[in-house]
Amino acid sequence: MKIGVFIDAENIRRSGGYGIRYDVLRDYVSLYGDPIRLNSYMSIDEARMKTDYEYKDRRF
């Protein structure tokens, strides 16, 4: 079985998943098939980055 995993990183962060271990998630998915795609997505507010230096310096 081929498996694709797409993660909404901002949603995980807001749910308390700051320290999510993506390697553990990958290993878990691998138990059930061959992961062909493992992606994590998040949006960045470019307008806010121009005025909010604390936001700009965050590590994403």
The number of distinct structural domains comes to: 1
Mean pLDDT: 84
Shape: elongated
**Low-pLDDT residue spans:** none
Give the biggest sheet: 2 strands, parallel
Read across the widest sheet, the strand sequence of neighbours is: 1-2
Secondary-structure element pattern, one letter each: EHHEHH
Termini distance? 32 Å
Helix content: 40-55%
| Record field, number of beta strands | 2
**What portion of residues belong to β-strands?**
25-35%
Helix segment tally? 4
Query: What is the alpha-carbon Rg in Å?
Result: 15 Å
Structural class category: alpha+beta
In short:
This protein is α+β, with helices and mostly antiparallel strands.
List keywords for this structure.
single chain, 60 residues, alpha+beta, two-stranded parallel sheet, 42% helix, elongated
Describe it:
With 60 residues, the protein is α+β, with helices and mostly antiparallel strands. The chain has one domain (2-56). Helix content is 42%, strand content 25%. It is built from 4 helices and 2 strands. It has helices at 9-14, 22-30, 46-51, 53-56, and strands at 2-8, 34-41. It has a two-stranded parallel ribbon with strand order 1-2. The longest helix has 9 residues, at 22-30. The protein is elongated and about 45 Å long. The chain starts with a strand and ends with a helix.
List the helices and strands and how they pair.
Blueprint: E1 2-8, H1 9-14, H2 22-30, E2 34-41, H3 46-51, H4 53-56
Parallel strand pairs: 1-2
Protein name: NYN domain-containing protein
